[in-house]
Amino acid sequence: MSLVGFIFRRVLIIIPTLWVIATLTFFLIRVAPGGPFQSEREIPAAAKEQLLRKYGLDQPLHRQYLSFLANAARLDFGPSYKFPQRQVREIILEAFPVSAELGGWALLVAILVGAPIGVIAAVKQNSRADYAAMGIALAGVSIPNFVLGPVLVLGLALTLYLLPPALWQGPESRVLPVLTLSTAYVAYIARLTRGGMLETLRQDYIRTARAKGLSEPVVVGKHALRLGILPVVSYLGPAAARIIMGSIVVETIFAVPGLGRYLVNAAFNRDYTLVLGGVLFYASFLMVLNLLIDVAYTRLDPRVELA
Amino acid sequence: MTRLAPLVRPFPVRLPGSSWLAAALAVILAAGACAPAREAPVGAAASAARWFGDTSPPPDNVFRFNLGAEPETYDPGLAVGQPDGRVARLLFEGLTREDPQTLEPLPGQAYRWEISPDGRTYTFHLRPGLRWSDDRPVTAHDFRWTWLRVLKPETAARYAGFLYAVVNAEAYNKGELKDENQVGLEAPDDSTFVVRLAAPVPYFLYLTQFYTCLPVPRWAIEKHGNRWTRPGNIVGNGAFTLDYWRQNNRFEVVKNPRYWDAASVKLDRVVGYCIDDLNTSFNLYKAGSFDWCPSGYFPSSFIPYVREYSDYRHGDYQAVYFYSICVKKPPLDHPDVRRALKMSVDRDAIANDLLKGSRRPWGNFAPSGYPGYHNPPGIPYDPPKAREYLARAGFPGGKGFPKISILINTSEDHRRIAEAIQAMWKRELGIPVEVFNQEWGSYLQATTALQYDVARRSWIGDYLDPNTFLSCYVTGDGNNRTGWGDPRYDRMLREAAKELDPAKRFAILREAEILLLDEGPVIPIYHYSTNEMVKPYVRGIYKTPLDIHPLTRVWIDREWERRATRVAARKAEAQGTR
Fold first, then answer.
1. Region of residue B540 (phi > 0: left; psi between -120 and 50: alpha; otherwise: beta)
2. Strand ranges, E, within B424-560
3. B118 Cβ neighbours under 8 A, 6+ residues apart
């Protein structure tokens, strides 16, 4: 099957999936008690009525649902209820690049540090270097970032005053959040790489390569790595999605103006439009990412066929 | 303004099942927060003062602070929360403005005003030569248009009720009256603004400085719609103009050269960050990224540790933490049952032991400190009497009393207090109590719909008058949320509203509070306090009763260390000569 056909078919599946997600989210958020215009201080009845009318919330639910679908199809989610001066689209377009930057750096660090550690551990299997690397990796996976973040802040920002403790201003402010976010992924990628490499290094074609008289760096770096890294590649899709969209804790600890904080707060605030826009954006992002990973997979491993 | 500490935290730091970890972390954080790293170089003379974290002033003439949560809007007419108001107050100025220490109204855009003998007509005279930041003149018509905008039903201003004292304002806001000329707001010429009130409102001048009443530029709103507040579109008449805004990050405002009193504005720039995580906010203060950490923006559990530092400022705040009783369901509809519940709460134990003295036990509904108002005696802690009342209501020793539940919104402090009260009621009255928590939205829904027995609540004053508290319990008021009502109470509040003599008026309100405390649906628990941190080089931030801090005259004192040394030396000298 051709690549174009493959992509076309996948996109055809994405659309109904998005529709299901949109529908579920739409009704779930409305089942939650309370609403966007509830406050501890009473809102005058006249004002509340106006607000409901302004946002079409006085319409019957099915009518609201249909107009939401029609607008969503045009990528228009309307204004946020909590921040009425801003469009949901605008918020996403402003906040997403920040999350993407944070996640991108973290992912880069994770690959650049994690993969070499994994390769070394695999090549020197059962040596001290292997045990040390895997021990550190185990610790890295186990320490949650809501512990690691504050500890790093305490040491590097508040005791040594080397780096700012938070705020997304200037390159030095990127260090701590990227470090905090990437640690777990460094560890996981190291373990995946080691596993993949160990399996690959036992394969016949590696023995052949060695028998041909190729040098060990070439065997490992060129022949083995290409297949051994595959588990990492397939992990990159979900990892990229998680690291970019799911960095809420890190965004909160370091006051990063990313998308994660918006989404969590939007759910608490019953900011229907922002929740829906955010969820759909996240879902599409995830699915497109998975599609790209599948395509990349075929480039790396000729045995994989597009289906 | 009603929401106190941001209770809906974006993410719970404490996860289920990892409480030991969280506890260990809290210890580490607390210890770290107090580590004397890069402390102020304490000279021999200034030995009494210890400062927290970095004490070097910012390099430029800038003042940086934490706004806390992201403002929902800073359009003054639509603003509701404290962060909203803080931004609006930088950019706009009302007819009057707050005295930075007492918050009493000082001449602002109006340089003088007359009040008619019956207290119903206010005539404001604007200063000559006032300008908007785009060089247009500020006129009385701007004020009239602004106030009418707040009242216009289509604006859907949540604080429109603030102007209901104005003749016909309520009818106009509710859409019952279409003709805006019948609302008691007139601008006979460019510099005179006349407000006619339906009844005398003794605290009316306080309202004229409240953010709902700050003037807004008609032409900018008509041109840009609801995007008029964005940088580039916004036009203001305040001491600062908006230079930069990034949502969930920060506001930067710069000095407005067209402000009438620009000569006394000493700061070139003010930066307000939107950091809702309390730990992060405190870290930034320590690292010297903030010059001021306003009240509520660091974890209250740190208070015992930071008390020792000279940065720490503590004061009373016009807000009360209380339990509200829904009187719709028996036996809570019985006043004696409510009396029993009220008298068996040991406020002292909660404020001083549980909360480590960071709050003041308080048995009244109206807070302390309203000029001229003398609070009646508060609800006493008297378990024997409480048992007596419970027996009188038909439940001797708590026998036959149905299980009641305490509703709280999810927060560690609320839970601890609720559990303490649960234990007190069980111990003193023998009644079964359960604690039930909900996240913020569901909690609001339950309290509004009266689907609860007893609920945690709090209330913050908007202006310096007990009316801002007591009016909540008028029958059917939207903020009542208990189903309680008493014609005697309503009558007293109506009478007070008509009374011109302040002493008599306060006496009536006091009677009303006595009735509310005796029979009403509230169990006051503690008086809120402000707990803030201010760097040593900041001048012009004062303790104020409403946690409102005009920043117009704040300045950075680069000589603070030498000054501190000199003062200390003088003190030492004075002691030596004695």
1. left
2. 433-438, 454-460, 522-534, 538-539, 555-556
3. B200, B500
**Domains of chain A, residue spans:** 100-270
Closest alpha carbon within chain B to A158: B287
CB contact under 8 A, B226 and A85: yes
Chain A residue numbers with beta carbons less than 8 Å from the beta carbon of B32 are 154, 158-159
CA-angle at B493, arms to B489 and B495, nearest 5°: 115
Give bridge partners of residue B457 from the DSSP assignment. Answer: B322
> B272 in helix, strand or coil?
strand
Are B50 and B307 a contacting pair, CB within 8 Å? Answer: no
Contact at CB, B249 and A257, closer than 8 angstroms = yes
Q: Which residues of B touch A163 (CB under 8 A)?
A: none
- B42's CB contacts (< 8 A; 6+ apart) are B49, B50
B contact residues 41-70, partner A, Cβ 8 Å cutoff: 53-54, 70
ipTM of this predicted structure: 0.85
Distance from CA of B238 to the nearest CA of A (A): 21
A-facing residues of B in 118-177 (CB < 8 A) are: 153-158, 160-161, 173-175
**β-bridge partners, B436:** B407
Instruction: Give the whole-angstrom CA distance, residue B83 versus residue B209.
Output: 16
* Element (DSSP H or E) covering residue B409: strand B404-409
**B232–A contact, CB cutoff 8 A:** no
Contact residues on chain A for B227, CB-CB shorter than 8 A: 85
CB of B14 less than 8 A from some CB of A = no
Tokens 């204004």, residue located: A79
Which residue type is seen at A70?
A
The one-digit pLDDT tens for each residue of chain B (578 residues) are 343 333 333 333 333 333 444 444 444 444 344 333 344 444 444 456 789 988 999 988 999 999 988 888 899 998 888 888 999 999 999 999 999 988 889 999 999 999 999 889 999 999 999 999 999 999 999 999 999 999 998 888 888 888 989 999 999 998 899 999 999 999 999 999 999 999 888 889 989 999 999 999 999 999 998 889 999 899 999 999 999 998 889 999 999 999 999 999 999 999 999 998 889 999 999 999 999 999 888 888 888 889 889 999 988 888 999 999 999 988 999 999 999 999 999 999 999 888 888 889 999 999 998 888 999 999 999 999 999 999 999 999 889 999 999 999 888 889 999 999 999 999 999 999 999 988 888 888 899 889 999 999 999 888 888 999 999 999 988 889 999 999 999 999 999 988 888 899 999 999 999 999 999 999 999 999 888 999 999 999 998 888 889 999 999 999 888 888 887 788 777 766 55
Question: How is residue B127 annotated by DSSP?
Answer: P
* Contact call for residues B8 and B439 (beta carbons, < 8 A): yes
DSSP 8-state secondary structure symbol assigned to residue A219: I
Closest partner residue to A268 among B8, B78, B479, by Cβ?
Answer: B8
Gap from A129 CA to chain B (nearest CA, Å):
30
The two structure tokens encoding residue A25: 């989210």
Maximum pairwise Cα distance, chain B: 76
Q: Does the domain made of A100-270 have the CATH classification 1.10.3720.10?
A: yes
Measured in residues, chain B has a length of 578
**CB nearest A159 (choices: B29, B35, B284):** B35
| Helix/strand/coil for A70 | helix
Do A167 and A195 meet the contact criterion of CB atoms below 8 Å apart?
no
Q: B526 - beta bridge partners?
A: B321, B361
A167 CB neighbours in chain B (<8 A) are: 249, 273, 284, 289
Q: How far apart are CA A223 and CA B404, in angstroms?
A: 71
